[in-house]
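Continuing from the previous page...

OK, I double-checked the sequence for Damage-inducible protein DinB against my notes and this is the correct one:
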Amino acid sequence: MSYSFKKYFLMLANYNAWANQKLFSVLKDLNEDQINQNCGAYFESLFRTVNHILVADILWFERIHGVVQSQYALDEIVHANLDSLTNARFLKDQSMIAFVQQLNDEAFHGTISYIRHGQRHTEPLIEVLAHVFNHQTHHRGQLHSMIFQITGVSLALDLIYFQREQADLYR
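Thanks. Re-ran it with the corrected sequence; updated C-alpha cells here:
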C-alpha cells in the first residue's frame, strides 16, 4: 500500500497524541519532587521538558499559521501545574491532528516563512512537520530515560507499537 503525505503525517500526529497520552498517564502518578527532580537532562526535569515540547509545538504552529513573532522562549514554563499542562498537551495534540487532516496533498509541498532572531527563514511545510514530530520523539526519549531513572518503569512508546495497535488505519 502506498502512503500519501497526508496519510503519513496523520499517522505521525496520531502517534504523537498516543505516545503523549501514555507518557502523561505515568507523570500523573508521580509526586511533585519526582516531576521536578533534576535528572541531568538539557531541560533538567520531567516538568520542564514536557513544557518545552509544548512550547516548541506552539512556536512551530504559530509560524505555520503566519504569526510573525512569538511571545515564548524555548525554556518557558507555560503551565505551572501538571493538570493544566496535561490538558494543554491534549488540546495541542488534537489541534495538530486536525491541522494535518485539513491539508490536501498539494499543501505539503508549500512553504512557510518566519523570522527567528531577526533572520527570515523559508522552509518547506513537509520538512517543518517532519521536524515537529521528530522533535517530540527526541524529547520523549529523554523523558523515558528520566522516568526510568526515577521509577524503574520503562515505557513502550515506539512507533511500531502504535502501528500494531492501529494496523487497520495505517496499512
